[in-house]
Amino acid sequence: MKYQEIESSFFINNRKKLISCLDENALVLLSSNDEMPETGDQCFPFRQNADFFYLTGIDQEKSILALCPQHPNPQYREVLFLLQTNETIAVWNGYKYTIEHAQRVSGIQNVQWLSNFDSLLKEMAYASEKIYLNLQENYRFTTEVERQELRFSKKIQQLFPLHTYGRLAPLFTHLRLRKESVEIDLIKKSCDITASAFKRLLKFVKPGVMEYEIEAEMIHEFIRLAATGHAFAPIIASGKDTCVLHYIKNNKMCQDGDLLLLDFGASFANYAGDLSRTIPVNGTYSPRQKQVYDACWRIYEFTKTLYVPGMTINKINKSVFAIMETEFVKLGLFTQQEADQQDKTTFPLVRKYFMHNIGHFMGIDTHDVGDRDVIFEEGMVASCEPGIYIPEERIGIRIETDMLISEKPIDLMENVPSNSIDIERIMKG
Description:
Distance between the termini: 36 Å
Number of helices: 13
Low-confidence stretches: none
Number of strands: 17
CATH class of the largest domain: Alpha Beta
Mean pLDDT: 95
Number of domains: 2
CATH topology of the largest domain: Creatine Amidinohydrolase
Strand content: 15-25%
């Protein structure tokens, strides 16, 4: 780990909050993520299951958490199971948690080796009536890969077919949406590292630079500042690809006169930052590029004011459509007459030039728990990212920051240049 240990009180409190949501005589079973095979004898870099990390702080594969809060034996009310290290593992793969270290990080006193799981599981299961299991239930995502948590859930249900079962995902969504102060600090740290990388890129980008060279500068700054790495695959899109929403090839040369759309974020202590800006490759926006960028910036500044308790992402979408429509008419993307005659219930005209939603929740995951109808509460964090995409003009603009929901919304990247004047000034030196 590159980050300082998070106080165990945070994880202890998270477990208490989860336990308060459970039915009587419940058992919670939660597995860490897989080590995902890449090719040959290699694995992709390990990324911990967000819910598992939220409850334990343990950043290691082959780990299981069991919570049985009403077990008659207090020793079985919280048990953490870890892979037992040995001299061979230490030589080839480096350090793994000791029992003492895991106790300190998680605040769980009963830490066992994974080899004891099957026998102790029976002790806890037979004292319980309902078993809670976890699956990632992200409404935005499906996969054909059978993840560890699904295999683990199938195994448990085969072993104990007569128990009743509950879903942990809705409980985690409820708990993780509102951020504790320690989480806000970690997100802010991720944002600060991301901001530092962006300022570095403003002084680096010029005609003839390859997109992957820009990515190299980005990750250099991340690692220099102790980030784990990218929070998600970075988008470094120049020219016509500024209009490709999830462009990640990052393999072209940046051309004089083109725009460069950057969408990236650092991960620090497993918490994500997420920033977007569109900059001129040569340091100066053309008159039309500046016109479109400034329109997007005005939308962006208005949108940030809406991140207050009581709002939802869908409500913000609708509110923003009105100002977008006005700006798009000014840009000549459609006429006022066309705007007046449109059918807004099926496909609003603005959707032709703004295809995605105005934002998403932020946290341990870049696209964190919570859907577009979740009512904002104080302490939630969500991205704000209006965009204008005009493929026929090779102009794609996106301006994004991360907002802390408050009666007076707080921009967690307020120190990042966002208007065209500041961006040009820094790029010109």
